[in-house]
Amino acid sequence: MASIVYSNGRYLPRHQAQTSVFDRAHLFADGIYEVIWVANRALVDWQDHHTRLLSSLAAVSLSIPWSPAVLRTLIFEVIRKNNLNNGFVYLQINRKHSYTRDHRITTTEKGGRPALMISAHHAPPPQCQPLKVITLPDERWRHCDIKSTALIKAVLSKQQAQQQGAHEAWFFDKDTQAITEGASCNAWMVTHNGTLCTHPADNRILHGVARQTLLKLCQRHKLPVQEQAFTLDALRNAREVFLTSTTLFVSPVSHIDDVAVGNGKVGETTQRLFDAYLHHCYPSSSSPDSHA
Ligand code: PDD
């Protein structure tokens, strides 16, 4: 079945969903996006994604005419039309296209209806499988809390990770050696005394929805957490290391720059949190419907 994309008021087969070459997302990456997990046809943490969407839009002075209810209805229609049981929806909003290439935001663009695109992506829920990570200096801008479509650094870093046989690249601050986050995930470690650490939710990281959910789950499971930056050295000496994201849930990290973390196996805390997170997404049954 051809996948159906919502694009500016129409549901179209994906090859027919096209935009102008003067689209500001195309010219300037002048857009905001969200990735939301779909579990047995339900949206996971929709409220948190919507709140972050509004905050990112406000940060780039983009206002939208759609209420949360309308956005939700459009998303569910994309889910229905694509028969999406498990996977994720991608939602992108960008400023109206310009008629010439001008960085400045003209009055028409300010007043115009932004472009809205929603697509569906079939995927089974991730397994609790160890992943390898490389580390790179964080050379990104200082507004990583904005979920902007300007992702070239993430693209190049993930490409480099793949070339080095790893799944992800994690960034560290060149001056302090503090780990900020991954190219498309949040970074966590467990110290030898069992304390979980993750970078504070400031402008150096994306305030991950999975990160936020996991903080609540840690509280429920009475696991001590410090929202405090940890260094590359501390990471190398950690008992357990894992990442969080909408699409990878809670995924264990087995190697940092080719050096094994602990014994290289999935740690007890990571496994426990993976199970808790999976249950958060699939509360009624521990196993998701078989077909993605
Ligand atoms: N990435 N940090 C960065 C830089 C990210 O791009 C992401 C998500 C996260 C985790 O955020 P969340 O828990 O809300 O997924 C952290 C998405 C999945 C992506 O770009 O595909």
Number of strands: 15
User: In whole angstroms, how far apart are the ends?
Assistant: 14 Å
Beta-strand residue fraction = 25-35%
The low-pLDDT segments are: none
The arrangement of helices and strands along the chain is EEHEEHHEHEEHEEEEHEHEEEH
Explain the overall architecture.
With 292 residues, this protein is an alpha+beta fold. It folds into 2 domains: 4-122, Aminotransferase class 4, branched-chain amino acid transferase, N-terminal domain (D-amino Acid Aminotransferase, Chain A, domain 1, 2-Layer Sandwich), CATH 3.30.470.10; 131-281, D-amino Acid Aminotransferase, subunit A, domain 2 (D-amino Acid Aminotransferase, Chain A, domain 2, Alpha-Beta Barrel). Helix content is 28%, strand content 27%. The protein contains 8 helices and 15 strands. The strands form 2 sheets. Strands 7, 8, 9, 10, 11, 12, 13, 14 and 15 form a 9-stranded mixed β-sheet that branches. Strands 2-1-6-5-3-4 form a 6-stranded antiparallel β-sheet. A hairpin with a 6-residue loop joins strand 8 (168-172) and strand 9. The two termini are 14 Å apart. The model has no long low-confidence stretch (mean pLDDT 94).
